[in-house]
């Protein structure tokens, strides 16, 4: 009992977009809790850096180049991961992009890029990974959503739409697999300093808007995401499915 509830020894986690940012934080947190990690992303240099760092924690880590928008490549990479590790117990769908302009100026190709990565990408990777979780009778799918699944902000029409879709996808998958041992939940972070939000971080007006809008008065620290990732990946959350946990300093409590 006790901390064993949070132990991930002998588990294998696939984390999309773990070459930097919140995905790297999630992959490292899962490794610290004992899991072996399939590090995934497109950039080979980052892939090697994160894989080496997680290997340095004493875990088995291997990098796989995956573009989550490409169904055939996703399927091929998941086969390679299964061949190497033998099983995938935890899937963190995290690879995401954004484009911020007003609705009337929003280019169609940017709409497609954001929706294809943030929404269809989660669907394609889960569709490729879930069958062996179902076969094994156990699995944890964690979808990195956002506060923007629950609240709106101007200039983020595709991103907010994708994240609203992620929460709905989470519920449908959770219902379909509830009796099969596969739990599906989402995490809804507020703003954390990563490359994705550099534009906002560097604009004092927008940076302060976020501080003022947040009941706790600040952005999240990267380490503050770790506990929720480990919780949702571990046996401690085995009776929880179909939920979104907001890690947002109280933003969505308004
Ligand atoms: N940062 C925040 O404040 C915040 C808040 C709420 C939610 N989130 C969510 O957290 C997730 C991660 O965001 P982040 O802030 O960590 O962003 P980030 O630093 O820009 O990292 C994005 C990651 O996604 C990967 N990626 C992008 N497109 C991909 C594709 N087509 N195929 C495979 N990998 C792809 C990137 O790797 P490569 O470039 O190597 O492919 C990178 O590892 C996203 O879903 C985002 O919506 C972030």
Write the topology of this structure.
Layout: E1 12-15, H1 21-32, E2 36-41, H2 44-55, E3 61-65, H3 71-85, E4 90-93, H4 108-136, E5 139-144, H5 157-177, E6 182-189, H6 198-201, H7 204-213, H8 226-233, E7 244-247
Parallel strand pairs: 1-2, 1-4, 2-3, 4-5, 5-6, 6-7
Helix pairs in contact: 1-8, 3-4, 4-5
What's the number of extended β-strand segments? Answer: 7
Tell me the number of helical segments per DSSP (H or I, 4 or more residues long). Answer: 8
Low-confidence stretches at least 5 residues in length (pLDDT < 50)? Answer: none
Describe the biggest sheet? 7 strands, parallel
Shape: globular
Instruction: Give the distinct bound molecules.
Output: NADP nicotinamide-adenine-dinucleotide phosphate
Supply the number of structural domains. 1
**What strand order characterises the main sheet?**
3-2-1-4-5-6-7
Give the strand content: 5-15%
- Class from helix and strand fractions: alpha/beta
């Amino acid at each position: 009992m006790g901390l064993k509830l949070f132990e991930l020894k002998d588990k294998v986690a696939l984390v999309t977009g773990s070459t930097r940012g919140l995905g790297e934080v999630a992959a490292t947190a899962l490794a610290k809790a004992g899991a072996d990690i399939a590090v995934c992303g497109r950039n080979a240099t980052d892939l090697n850096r994160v894989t080496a760092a997680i290997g340095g924690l004493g875990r088995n880590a291997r990098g796989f180049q995956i573009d989550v928008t490409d169904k055939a490549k996703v399927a091929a990479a998941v086969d390679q991961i299964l061949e190497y590790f033998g099983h995938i117990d935890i899937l963190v769908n995290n690879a995401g992009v954004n484009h911020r302009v007003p609705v009337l100026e929003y280019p169609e190709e940017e709409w497609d890029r954001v929706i294809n990565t943030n929404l269809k990408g989660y669907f394609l990777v889960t569709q490729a990974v879930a069958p062996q979780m179902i076969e094994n009778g156990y699995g944890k799918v964690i979808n990195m959503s956002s506060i923007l699944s629950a609240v709106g902000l101007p200039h983020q029409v595709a991103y907010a739409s994708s994240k609203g879709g992620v929460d709905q996808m989470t519920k449908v998958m959770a219902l379909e697999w509830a009796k099969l041992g596969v739990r599906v939940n989402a995490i809804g972070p507020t703003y954390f300093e990563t490359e994705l939000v550099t534009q906002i971080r560097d604009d004092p007006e927008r940076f302060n808007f976020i501080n003022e809008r947040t009941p706790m008065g600040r952005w999240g620290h990267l380490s503050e995401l770790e506990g929720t990732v480990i919780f949702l990946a571990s046996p401690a959350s085995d009776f929880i499915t179909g939920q979104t946990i907001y890690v947002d300093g109280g933003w969505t409590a308004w």
